[in-house]
């Protein structure tokens, strides 16, 4: 249980697909296991632990990426490494000890329902990106973007919605993360497994 949700780590020693198997690779994924309709926004890192003590762990971390490569998890959604590590490299490695692997996964983020609570009372504009509508604060958008500052000037103040048709919701999330960081200073959920 992490952040109020059940998670599952999937390791596929023969890869997750025929192509990965034929390439002699393994696959490693994180999945949301809880039966929920929530979309859980988070960053995660997942590593095979070097059991020799040398600290040469192998994996993926999204904590230090810019822009943050956050993932929305829904029930059954998996994200991770399709081509994780070559099968023939795993057996003689320091990752495998007594026929066991140790996998470490850390999850950091904001649950979407908490996000809604944080923004509900302060949000004052809707931003429609493709088919997704996001609730945000005009002041935050204006403070961090000259384009939005101009768009939200007095001449446009009566508008309660901005439509951005030529971008993807995931792209806009980076700007939205600035707003969430302000909220996060007060209420950040940090989870680790």
From TrEMBL:
Where do the MATH domain residues begin and end? 1-107
Q: In which pathway does it act?
A: Protein modification; protein ubiquitination
InterPro entries reported in the protein's UniProt record: BPM1-6 (IPR045005), BTB/POZ_dom (IPR000210), MATH/TRAF_dom (IPR002083), SKP1/BTB/POZ_sf (IPR011333), TRAF-like (IPR008974)
BTB domain: from which residue to which, for each copy? Answer: 123-175
| Pfam families per the UniProt record, alphabetical | BTB, MATH_2
The protein's superkingdom reads: Eukaryota
Name a biological process GO annotation.
Answer: protein ubiquitination
Query: What's the protein here called?
Result: BTB domain-containing protein
Tell me what organism the protein belongs to: Buddleja alternifolia
